[in-house]
Amino acid sequence: MDKKLLRKQIIEKRKQLPEERKMVASKKVIGKLSEDEHFLKADYIGLFHPGKGEMNLIELMTLYPDKIF
After folding, report:
1. What angle do CA 64, 25, 63 make, to 5 degrees?
2. Shortest CA distance to 49 belongs to which of 41, 36, 38, 61?
3. Dmax of the chain from CA atoms?
4. What pLDDT does residue 53 have?
5. Is pLDDT of 1 > 80?
6. Are 21 and 50 in contact (CB under 8 A)?
7. Above pLDDT 90, what percent of the chain?
8. How far, in Å, CA of 36 to CA of 41, rounded?
């Protein structure tokens, strides 16, 4: 299986996940990051705008207004 086809299949599966499950996953990731020493010490954080059913981590911008996203 080539990479392009695999990526397409994964995106389709992710789009089919219930919104509630994506919200729970986002909260878990945000919780883990909030405990991570490297994240907490960092001034600059790379963040993406969610698309194609990706989890939403935009809440980090509100939780950590002192960081540059």
Report:
1. 10
2. 61
3. 44
4. 84
5. no
6. no
7. 90
8. 9
